[in-house]
Design goal:
transmembrane; mainly alpha; two-stranded antiparallel sheet; 4960_t:CDS:1; 7 helices
Length: 252
């Protein structure tokens, strides 16, 4: 006959020993237990990472860290932030703001003022194309050439077909309104005045600080300089693409 023991079936019996309610337990049978779920066993097994795998991950990180010395985009970004981005940003803001003020006044004196406004729009668009060209040098991705608006021409809407009934005497007026109020023209104005003016100062200051650190600790800080500048170049490219070409947002 199986041995049986009696235990209190109520937790209050630990405090009040006078309680006579007991539970009989068969010691020959194992007590009931809860089977661990698959998620628990899986999560616990995932915590057991082999030492060889840890060493491999460390070696990969070290190799990636030092391989930045041979990545050309890191060096290109350093040169860009030190010698290209900051001068372009300063020159653009010094040119765009005065020409914007003069263009507003010149519109009071047609038709000479209108031609001056067209020239101002051309200059802004040229600065935008220069900026796009240099920023693309910092990354592997490129902006398709057919989506970059030219300086003096407007990209025709593919749904708009030319008609023979359009009066030619108003063509220059349409060109004036088209080039001066074109989206690319005003995006260039907003980009250089409100975005580039801040980016060029921040990236230039960070690059100079990293260069100074790399000069003091050349062996260790040089990869940090290249990695940081490459990341800043990728970030600036994505920001520039999102502002000028929102239709390419899904582009990786």
């Amino acid at each position: 006959m199986a041995n049986r023991l009696s235990y209190p079936d109520d937790k209050k019996t630990l405090e009040a020993l006078g309680n006579n309610h007991y539970l009989e337990i068969d010691i020959d049978q194992p007590p009931p237990y809860e089977v661990a779920s698959s998620s628990r066993t899986q999560s616990s097994s995932e915590l057991r990472i082999p030492q060889d795998e840890i060493k491999t991950q460390k070696n990969d990180c070290a190799a990636s860290f030092w391989s930045s010395l041979t990545n050309p985009y890191g060096w290109i970004c350093v040169i860009y932030f030190l010698f290209v981005s900051f001068p372009i940003g300063v020159a653009a803001i010094c040119w765009i703001l005065p020409t914007f003020a003069v263009a507003i006044v010149s519109m009071l004196f047609p038709p000479v003022g209108y031609f001056f406004c067209i020239g101002v729009a051309w200059s802004w668009r040229a600065l935008a194309r220069i900026e796009i060209f240099f920023v693309q040098l910092c990354v592997r991705e490129k902006i398709p050439k057919h989506v970059i608006p030219p300086v003096t021409k407007l990209l025709r809407d593919p749904h708009e077909l030319p008609t023979a009934t359009q009066p030619r005497k108003l063509s220059w007026i349409k060109y004036f309104t088209g080039i001066c109020f074109d989206r690319f023209t005003w995006i260039a104005f907003v980009y250089f005045v409100f975005v580039k003016s801040l980016i060029c100062v921040i990236t230039f200051a960070l690059t100079v600080a990293l260069v100074c650190m790399a000069g003091l600790l050349m062996l260790f800080c040089m990869p940090i300089l290249l990695i940081a500048c490459r990341k800043m170049g990728e970030w600036e490219f994505k920001l520039m693409r999102a502002i000028f070409f929102p239709q390419l947002k899904g582009m990786s």
